[in-house]
Amino acid sequence: MPVTLNPYLNFQDDAREALEFYHSVFGGELRMSTFAEFGAAQDPAENDLIMHGQIDGANGVTLMAADTPKHLDFSGHSGFSVSLSGDDDATLRGYWEKLGDGAQIVEPLEVAPWGDAFGMLVDRFGVAWAVNITGAAA
User: Fold this and answer.
1) CA of 5: how far to CAs of 49, 62, 66, 88, 103, in Å?
2) CB atoms within 10 A of CB 102
3) DSSP letters along 13-54, please?
4) Could you tell me which CATH class the domain 8-67 is placed in?
């Protein structure tokens, strides 16, 4: 079996909403399991929170996420960005547009000095994304 490297995002009480949003962006199959399903909630108020969620989307996209239980520290989403790159202009621009709903645009998706289209945004859940379209036209 090959090794897979994919983002695993942590949230505080809104992983379900985030996963449903990302599923609308990337399509594919969405699976979610709650803390209650695994008998893993230390606080009954956390029963319906997401212990593990996974999207297996089109184009090889795999994204995982979970809620952070209250007894663990949640440090937010800082110090990294999730990168989408490739040469499929239409697909990557489609992801950009959907991720941009409610987002803060840090760098518009435009042709960069290196010749690719590049943009950065922070989505409505506070996750930073970078999109690079190889050799994209202006």
Assistant:
1) 25, 9, 17, 21, 25
2) 9
3) S-HHHHHHHHHHHH-SEEEEEETGGGT--SSGGGTTSEEEEE
4) alpha beta
**pLDDT confidence of residue 136:** 60
pLDDT digits (tens, 9 = 90+) for 6-65: 999 999 999 999 999 999 999 999 999 999 999 888 889 999 999 999 999 999 999 999
| Residue limits of CATH 3.30.720.110 in the chain | 82-133
Task: Give me 132's structure tokens.
Answer: 């690079």
| Tokens of residue 28, six digits | 């594919």
* Residues 79/84/85/86 CA torsion (nearest 10 deg): 170
Pairing mode of beta strands 62-67, 50-56: antiparallel
Topology of domain 82-133 in CATH is 3.30.720
Mean model confidence pLDDT for the chain: 94
Q: Token pair for residue 6?
A: 């994919």
CA–CA distance, 8 with 63 (Å, rounded to integer): 6
The CA radius of gyration of the chain, in Å to the nearest whole number, is 16
